[in-house]
Design goal:
CATH architecture of the largest domain: Alpha/alpha barrel
Radius of gyration: 26 Å
Strand content: 5-15%
Largest sheet: 5 strands, mixed
Number of domains: 4
CATH class of the largest domain: Mainly Alpha
Number of strands: 18
Shape: globular
Helix content: 40-55%
Structural class: alpha+beta
Length: 677
């Protein structure tokens, strides 16, 4: 019989609706029940595409004996970390402080007052490699609760007090200057892997936000070292197994240093961020590889993640049916030589194996290989390779597909909107811009209320109950600002302003200028989460700084500019020390240091070919964080267009900083030169 999770919108929670565990969603009622019964709370946090979350569920949560023990001695609460990043953040901070590591599934035991006292991640069904079984953990926690409750509650109280005393080095209110940005670049060179690209060792994550910083730093300074790190890393990833060589799009990370074997889940945020990075790399270098990867990644998002309502689903699972009924990681994506022969025949299979690095020994498990591009393109007949790729893609499509987490997360859709809008504009793909507009329309219709307050998620056209957090407001504003620049529709600038008003009034500390991840009027947790460092996506803090800065450049708003500069103080403190973990903040700091430049393009009509040529030139400018307003002369849709007339009746472009402009130009080449200085 389904438990309480059957009424939830989260696919992850719904996956546990038929467990024999008597799950509760995160709610005040769950903690009231724990108080009434005098038992601790078992908090389990995960997400739909998490491989080990599925393993724990199959081994323990579907086990009747384990479920009976949980139901008798605990109140069990299941949380989707993607729906409630605030709950995940505060307890993950406690887990990491206590154990020195973290991850998902996250297992935390709480008092009925929501104070944590015992922590872990995955626990096996039987003791293994020094790790206790899940049943042993439950028995130990229950025994401690029954026999040493006062000690347990004292420990929990101390943990909460210790967390409350943690402080972030805000770095003051001065934005990073050229010296700090140069120091951050130097620190990155020390961690760079010159043989394989990327930073650090295994596992290796796509450093999308750091790559954006490197491209912006190169644009401002001409640093060839910054460009080389970005270009080589992008090429290594694009040729590795982390990139889907048949269908486009990136997996979450590589388990090795060579980008060869991925953890196969595909996340919307990774692909949105990387699509934009490769588009910007093409903008800088003209690389055909970067162009192809940007477009293939955009097409992947539209083809496989777009929902019926026009938004974008969160993720594809790593696991799928291997054809024998087993749920196996990577089964959808890997190939053996025999499978190639079955689809292609002997001659083309031999070429495909050479081209994609498929061996008899295999590069993955059980003799299977992850497709890579070990041979540089151009060595083989391009038409023949394209035909092979198409046939393999069509054959793969018949395989059991990975599951899709089809909830729409506001923040990640904001990132996708920005990526698709820019990629569509750069490569003359109006269908991609239309896809971005469709997602933006869904967010306005379904996620924003009459006060422009954002809901975090929706699914199947039904809004979720959870309030948006800082990253939602910031990333959606970023997406709307990109749409405004590409389409020339000022309404998207207006919507961005409404969202950023919430950032100023509900998420910003008026005294210090620091930012919180949750609104002042949000549900009170044991700690109000606040983290400026980037993780898999830009932190809400740095994303907000970027959106505030761009909006100020569009409108001349001093409060937004001041808020952005105060928020960037933390980048001055952390950038030179830990640049890998504040890459987006460094990218925003590059924009602030550059101005950012403001470009107003006016024409007699938006359809005028001369105006469109100037507009495209402005969009393709590599100037860090440049904002573009595009419209007819005299239009009031963008403040930047005010008092910007045509020049001798011809379309014109104005390049400005802080609304102070150089002489206008009617020549795209001169505009390009002005924006490249």
């Amino acid at each position: 019989m389904p438990n309480r999770l059957a009424q939830e919108t989260s696919p992850y929670l719904l996956q546990h609706a038929d467990n024999p565990v008597d799950w509760w969603p995160w709610s005040s009622e769950a903690f009231e029940e724990a108080r009434r019964r005098g038992v601790p709370v078992h908090l389990s946090v995960g997400y739909s595409s998490c491989h080990w979350c599925h393993v724990l569920a199959a081994e323990s949560f579907e086990d009747e004996a384990v479920a009976d023990y949980l139901n008798e001695h605990f109140v069990s609460v299941k949380v989707d970390r993607e729906e409630r990043p605030d709950v995940d953040a505060v307890y993950m901070e406690a887990v990491q402080a206590a154990t020195g590591q973290g991850g998902w599934p996250m297992t935390v035991f709480l008092t009925p007052e929501a104070e944590p006292f015992y922590f872990g991640t995955y626990f096996p069904p039987a003791p293994r490699q020094g790790m206790p079984s899940f049943r042993q953990v439950l028995q130990g926690v229950q025994q401690a609760w029954e026999t040493r409750r006062e000690e347990v509650t004292d420990v929990a109280g101390k943990i909460v007090r210790d967390l409350a005393q943690r402080e972030i080095d805000y770095g003051g209110t001065r934005t990073p200057g050229g010296e700090e940005l140069g120091q951050a670049l130097l620190a990155l060179t020390r961690e760079y892997d010159p043989q394989r690209g990327g930073f650090g060792g295994a596992p290796k994550f796509p450093p999308s936000m750091v790559l954006e910083f490197l491209l912006r730093h190169h644009a401002r300074t001409g640093s060839e070292g910054a460009l080389q790190m970005a270009r080589d890393t992008c090429e290594r990833m694009a040729r590795g197994g982390i990139y889907d060589q048949l269908g486009g799009g990136f997996a979450r990370y590589s388990v090795d240093r060579d980008w060869a074997v991925p953890h196969f889940e595909k996340m919307l945020y990774d692909n949105a961020l990387l699509c934009r990075v490769y588009a910007h790399l093409w903008r800088t270098t003209g690389s055909e590889l970067a162009r192809r990867v940007a477009l293939e990644t955009a097409d992947f998002m539209v083809r496989e993640l777009r929902t019926e309502q026009g938004g974008f689903a969160s993720a594809l699972d790593a696991d799928s049916d291997d054809g024998t009924g087993g749920h196996v990681e990577g089964a959808y994506y890997v190939w053996t030589p025999e499978q190639l022969r079955e689809v292609l025949g002997a001659e083309d299979a031999e070429l495909a194996a050479q081209y994609f690095g498929v061996t008899e020994e295999g590069t993955f498990e059980q003799g299977a290989s992850v497709l890579q591009l070990p041979v540089r393109e151009g060595v083989h007949d391009a038409a023949r390779i394209d035909a092979i790729r198409r046939r393999l893609f069509e054959a793969r499509a018949v395989r059991p597909a990975p599951g899709r987490d089809d909830k729409v997360v506001a923040a990640w859709n904001g990132l996708a909107i920005a990526a698709l809008a820019e990629t569509g504009a750069y490569f003359d793909r109006p269908d991609l811009v239309e896809a971005a507009l469709g997602a933006a329309d869904l967010l306005v219709r379904l996620h924003m209320d009459e006060h422009a307050a954002l809901g975090r998620t929706s699914r199947d056209g039904r809004a979720g109950a959870n309030a948006g957090v800082l990253e939602d407001y910031a990333d959606v504003a970023e997406g709307f600002l990109a749409l405004a620049a590409v389409t020339g529709e000022g309404v998207w600038l207006d919507f961005a302003g409404l969202l950023l008003d919430h950032v100023l009034t509900r998420f910003t500390d008026a005294e210090s200028g620091s930012l919180y991840d949750t609104a002042a009027d949000a549900e009170k947790l044991i700690r109000r989460p606040q983290d400026p460092t980037d993780n898999a996506a830009p932190s809400g803090w740095t994303a907000a700084a970027g959106a505030l800065l761009a909006y100020a450049a569009h409108t001349g708003s001093q409060p937004h500019r001041t808020a952005a500069e105060r928020a960037l103080g933390v980048v001055r403190a952390l950038g030179p020390r830990v640049p890998r973990f504040i890459g987006w903040g460094l990218a925003v700091a590059e924009a602030a240091f550059d101005g950012p430049r403001e470009v107003a393009v006016v024409g007699p009509a938006l359809a005028d070919e001369r105006a469109r040529a100037l507009h495209r030139t402005a969009l393709l400018a590599p100037a860090p964080g440049a904002v573009v307003a595009y419209g007819t002369a005299g239009s009031d849709e963008f403040p930047l267009l005010a008092d910007r007339p045509l020049v001798n009746g011809e379309p014109a472009a104005y390049v400005c900083r802080n609304f102070t402009c150089d002489a206008p130009t009617t020549d795209p080449a001169r505009l390009r030169a002005a924006l490249s200085e």
